Amino acid sequence: MPGWRVGFAVGNERLIAALARVKSYLDYGAFTPIRVAATAALNGSDDVIEDVRKVYKSRHDVLVESFGRSGWDIPVPKATMFAWAPIPAQFAHLGSLRIRQAPDQGNWRQRSPRRRLR
Question: Contact, 60 vs 81, CB < 8 A?
Fold first, then answer.
């Protein structure tokens, strides 16, 4: 699950206590079901890992192949579930931060204006 990080630290009792105190001021704990799932994953069998890898590989293969057929070549991910897609050539001159401000190119991002309900 991207965005959720679960980890642990092992070491000197005083240093770990200090780390726990600093962490409690800087961030927040993960949602309880995430912690429970992480505990089950860390303590459980590794039998499902290969199945999960196959699911993610299948998903990124479909994504890369589909975009490739439409003319958007995306490098095949080697060790991640993410596909890092380069900006399409016709928009490269805009840079990554200005892509949202691109003029309408074949209605690729055109949206109808929002209307206020009374």
Answer: yes
